[in-house]
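Z., the sequence and structure:
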Amino acid sequence: MSNDSPTGRRFVRWLPAVVVMAVIFILSSRTGDELDTVLPWVQKLFPWLESFDPGHYAAYFVLALSYAFGFGFRRMNVGRSLLVVLMSLLYGVTDEWHQSFVPNRTPDLADLLHDGIGAAVAVVCVAIWNGWERGRSARKRK
């Protein structure tokens, strides 16, 4: 299968999503004790984030962006945007289930909420970027 074929290009476009999912899986495999060495540092750096775990927002923001890249940023519409958020949440469910097998980690519905918010913000950013690009293209044609 050549990367010049439409199938090859589609496959390559989804590789970032596979990489991001693998990174999330690896990070989720860390025990609670290993995470306790990172979270206090983040909370010390940003004291107002005491009960805030930016990792879920950031990870699922990037995951949703990688899904949108797989679909093609310019091809994103409301349906694909909702699908990207749903795909992110479904991966979040598997991530929480995976964490139930990791020592000192527990699944948490709040984490799923944070995952969904991160994915939704990414989709909104893609929509804003697409609107800006369309406006820019329209101004160039005039």
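DSSP finds six helices and no strands in the chain. The two ends are 42 Å apart (CA to CA).

Let me know what you think.
H.
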